[in-house]
Design a protein that fits this description.
alpha/beta; 12 strands; single chain; 310 residues
């Protein structure tokens, strides 16, 4: 029996350069090298199942789409909305800045519908899992996802306030760190939606709750991009312990994330050189080793609803 369950969700987009500027013409080394040559073979070697959340522009590249299609059942594929790339009114921005929560309701729904339709045409099955670009989920998003047949949402970042990033009021302070059914009008709070929210595993630092100084401290993310192997292991143990105290007997769900292009040099600001990309990949390896050693099953986001029902 698994001690806990780990989801590793991987944003799958076009390649980005310094300051997250999209490369022109668009390129997809994050798929060709990041997923096909580096990430997926690593996950397969551990018998682990990642979740690739695919942005709309990827479907316009025949080679990238075919490579994802060939992954077959070795992973989960879901969707990821950067609204600039999705119809209607799709365009190629230098930097993706939109938060879907700020769209007119009709436009948000049409973009979500278009992205979902692209996915179904490409892969011939219904996506179950979704994440908003820039974590910009809004108070209508959950309802739209339910209508479109999704079962899992993954945009909530507990203890993080995105107001200073360009969307005033977008805050997940106080959101649960374990999966919950959200309030459709406030995804950061539990409610009665049929969609399951699987938040990123993010925990506050020791001093973060202090007035004044606390708001300037970045919480701890279960994210190989930023955390050492030792820090990832400590965060995993802290979350398991707290989740068990809060809900004895309930399966513990951990959720790590990264971008596929982070493990390819010069395709994100996080990894300008091969050594940087390898460092991130090594941390993913360390996280999977930890999961194997500690009897933590690595599952897709879409597997979690069934796990929680058992």
């Amino acid at each position: 029996m698994s001690r806990a369950y780990l989801c590793v969700s991987i944003d799958t987009e076009c390649d980005k350069g310094p300051a997250w500027r999209s490369r022109r013409p668009l390129s997809f080394e994050g798929v060709h090298v990041g997923i096909v040559e580096r990430l997926q073979p690593l996950f397969t070697s551990f018998g682990a199942k990642p979740t690739y959340l695919v942005s709309a522009e990827v479907f316009r590249d025949e080679r990238a789409t075919e490579e994802l299609r060939k992954l077959d059942g070795s992973c989960e594929l879901g969707t990821h909305l950067h609204g600039e790339y999705a119809e209607p009114s799709a365009w190629l921005p230098e930097v993706t800045l939109d938060f879907q929560r700020d769209y007119d309701p009709d436009l948000e729904k049409r973009k979500l519908t278009s992205l979902t339709d692209q996915f179904i045409r490409a892969f011939e099955f219904q996506p179950l899992s979704f994440r908003a670009g820039r974590f910009g989920i809004g108070h209508r998003t959950i309802g739209f996802l339910e209508e479109l047949g999704y079962s899992v949402e993954s945009s909530v970042t507990p203890h993080v306030d995105w107001s200073s990033a360009g969307s005033p009021g977008l805050s997940f302070a106080g959101a649960p760190t374990q999966p919950y059914h959200p309030d459709p009008a406030d995804p950061a709070r539990p409610g009665e939606s049929g969609v399951l929210e699987i938040p990123i595993t993010i925990r506050p630092r020791l001093w973060q709750r202090l007035p004044g100084i606390g708001k300037h401290l970045e919480p701890r993310w279960l994210r190989p991009t930023w955390m050492t192997a030792e820090a990832l292991a400590e965060l995993v143990e802290d979350e398991i312990a707290d989740a068990r105290r809060a809900a004895p007997g309930r399966p513990v769900i951990l959720h790590a994330m990264l971008h596929a292009a982070e493990v390819v040099p010069a395709m994100t600001p996080y990894a300008p050189f091969e050594a940087d990309a390898r460092r991130i990949l090594d941390r993913v390896h360390a996280l999977l080793e930890l999961a194997q050693r500690e009897a933590i099953a690595v599952v897709g986001l879409g597997d979690v609803p069934e796990i929680l029902q058992t």
